Amino acid sequence: MGVERGRRFFSVGRTVRLVRACLVEQVNPASFYLPLAADSVSLVERFGGVEGRLVLDVGAGPGYFAQAFGAAGARYVSVDARPVGMVCGDGLALPVRSGVVDVCFSSNVLEHVSDPRRMFEEMLRVTRPGGLVFLCYTNWLGPLGGHETAPWHYLGGKRAARIYERRYGGPPANRYGTSLFALSVTRVLGWVREVERSGVVERLAVFPRYHPGWAHLVVRVPGLREFLTANCAIALRVCSQSNDAAQSRQAPRIVAARVGSADSSLSAPETVSVRVAPGGTSQPVAPF
What we know:
Helices cover about 35% and strands about 20% of the residues. It is an alpha/beta fold. Strand 1, helix 4 and strand 2 form a beta-alpha-beta unit.
């Protein structure tokens, strides 16, 4: 797949197309996810090709990203807590051996998990030395932070949900404090700086995903970036010493998470899970 470079890729036209797609997510998911998935592949390819590479998509959803990465020649595997992915599993305790995937990717999932730091560390753990972690998430104080409850989320997440319910006669799909959590640019960048200082990763890029290229510098301005960044994209190169350190830090948490899950058949992270039918659970098999 050819990838446009620089300003030509991060154009105003691209921004307009993506924002328009965001506005119809609830009523016409395909009109949102198809262009978003294609754009995601292009973004990942800016930091290295995906053809022939093992791509793990955390929280992939119902197949739009599988189509896009498959068309680009990737060896694609998705993990989702719902029975819509290729593997039914938990992003906070990925059923994947440490250091085996070439690209660990996630789009618009981090703000939906109760422990986003753990998911971030899990993505680092499963990525091989020299591999890429590419992560995009919706920033709470940005214009899209409340998802379908925006812009009322500026009044508070719970109040926004009440306003939405009064206006539309039913609760929002994303409930604040249950399936939607406040996540800031500054908070996630703090995690990135921490793993950078410890030599776990090399930061390749941090930018507002939907913005044109000339507006990318906004993420460097504390305070302002929280309100002007609708969606934050982070690209990291995993360093050679990262996986052993990440695995030792994460092992107690992962074991505890799996032991505490009554309906999970996931075993220890020394495995990659086999593909399963919708509604099934993953079974540990040999890695790819």
